[in-house]
Amino acid sequence: MGERLPERVSTPSGAVFLSYASQDAEAASRICDALRAAGIEVWFDQSELRGGDAWDQSIRKQIKTCALFLAVISRHTHERAEGYFRLEWKLAVDRSHLIMANKAFLVPVVIDETADDEENVPDKFREVQWTRLAGGETPSAFVDRVRQLLSREASTTVRLPASAMSGGAPARVSWRSKSVLRAIVVTILAVAVLAIGAYAARRAHFAAVMTAVRVEAPPASALPAHTVAVLPFENLSAEPSDGFLATGIAESVLHRLAAVKSLSVIARTSSFTFHGRDVDARDIGRKLNARYLVEGSVQRAGDRLRVTAQLLDASSGSDLWSLRFERHMGDIFEVQDEISGKVADALAVSLQASPGNGVQRGTPKLDAYLAYMEGRSFLSTFKTADAKAGIERLRRATEIDPTFAVAYAEEAHGLRLLWWLSRPDEDVDAETEKQAASLVDKALALDPELGEAWVERANGRAGEAFDAVTDADFRKGLALAPNYAQGYELYGEWLDNIGHTDDGLAMIERARQLDPLAPRNHYMKGLSRLERDDVDGAVALFLEALRVNPTYHPALARLGQVEFARGNLAEAVKLYERAIALDPMTYWMRVEAAEAYRELGDTAAAQDVLSAIPPAARPIGAALWKTCLAINLGETQRAATELYALPHGKLNATILNGADLPCPSIVIRDDALERHDYGRGLRALEVCLTPDWDSVLSRRGTDAQANCAVQYASLLLASGERDRAAKLLDSMLKGLEHHKPYSEVAAVHAGALALLGNTDGALKALEAAFAAQKFGWWYELERSPDFKGLHSETRFRSLARQYQEFVARQSALLAEMRRSGEVPYRPPSTASVR
Questions:
Q1: Would you tell me how many other CB atoms lie within 10 Å of the CB of residue 755?
Q2: 387, 414 Cβ separation under 8 angstroms
Q3: What does DSSP assign to residue 300?
Q4: Does the global pTM surpass 0.70?
């Protein structure tokens, strides 16, 4: 490790080599002290950095001769691309290839919350069981195990039995272990089928290595106490329709336990993913990070109901207790209460929660409850058609039982979710928000202590700035419903959006802990990373969302955006089309696909993908991209006529759009030049002007305004007002230089300099912009009047040629994807002629 010099001590062949990053020295020291206290020799270097060949050779010698290599893994090792510990890891892995297969050597130890699927470790580490020693705290069972490994030849796979850590009985596998391998293979294939470029291939490889070898649960000490997951109950009834009854009982037990502040209860969207799967209880506990599991079955015959329930210890897979009830259907809610109480008793906590906490104090009518359960199930798919069906079921629940408070709150969430699925970057419209707010008010009137309703009220009020009332509502809701994962995610999303990034990410991380298999939690954290230019971190989280739910199309579309930004336009189209196939009614994804098709010059495909969006449902982006397409199609005058038909306020908003697209101002400028009607164009583009460019350009989302100012200056020059144009352009250029990274606004710089007659400066700006981004240059290089004076320049022609070659390569890739069936032909009729 490049930060330390090893102590000059001898290392016998029975010693342990302890490898760690310098930031983890304190935790590593605890592990070292525990092992040395038991008489185990440990090679543990703590000196200051010295370097040199002698020091390097000393490290290599110790790794070559040690008996065990203990690698400390943490977020620090994940984040550091370089470090001497990585050389130590490589040396140890190299030596492991020379060691016989039945002898233990590699012992990875995780000291924090770093995930089991950590990618920044050698593949060889994934072939052995990892041990979790939080903060380096080392139990005697781990020390005993190391002593055993040093005293005899052991298996390469270091497995710490749960009973060794807990002192309990030997592990016993539950009924869910009938085919662990089959479930693993199905999971891996589901991810691999996505084939998301290089990202998915790498992820599938890591997943295959991890799950094919490391299927045992971690030691008991790694699973947090008082953490419970309620698994979906099995439907043993003759009627498949009784499945919702089984789901409802499990959901109700989960909901009651979630009200207990001293318990951490995994959300249903994670625990219910194991429905119908034969998976070992210990593996479930590891994946959910839950120490205890509740499972059961339901069987109905007429009006008689038989329910069984078991509480499992996920650290060992053993049953703690089991219950069996035979009751009338009318007693179903009493059965749910009794199961919840038994779980709480077994875990030595009180089920006596604070008032509210999301528990429906009145007993809802059974049919209403089943409709509510079905509605929630539909909402959890994150598909537009299912969201509509879920809202309909929730309305049915409150029609059957008008006092069902939580159903009103869930319907409000469903309305906002439906809007988000179609327009994730736009605020909920006034009518939808009015309906949702009314439903929340009904819920709180019926149950003022309903945590979910307080969270949903805050969600409706969440704006772009901090608001004390909104913050208080979020906090009150989460105090009443302390295990409400969705509430933590919504609160975190708002905090992140208003600039409280650290607090927001902490809330989202809490949601991920409570609901680790809910794709939206990973997705929202990925969006936060993407907003802060951590592209690799964002991609990993989007892939995680797809790992837990391969049909989660928003993550596919965001991966498409990443590929688009990297210039992989054909790959972006493929990802967008897969997302569209999963949910054809999620219209914002069609807008993204249209943009990619336009960049490839395939205007017919762009028009086709947008044609499925009903006019009344079009996101703002759809109208903007139709304006952009008009430029490609040479229909500038038609597009300008449509823009001028807009009310004055809407025209201004379209020109200064939040998407930072210059198309509306380009259409107006080009139409004015074609018609020689400069006055009309200047009046329309006056909205772009400001006396204080320095202030305007210091804010995000003002690129469209800067582009618009260039179009305005172009019209001033055409009308003979050269001095006004020069003054405007000089003022704007100064603001750009102060506040905008050059690479982001190089095209605006280039246009302004070209209009000012600075040919060399304009070419330098274009070359800088093209070097940073190879796509998006069709208009500037082929159509823009701003650059007509540069067309004879050799450097300009070189850029045009490079751009045409880039588009040709990407178009060829897209054509091959269409022939192989990876991307559909658009419009479909073109398939027969290509």
A1: 23
A2: yes
A3: E
A4: no
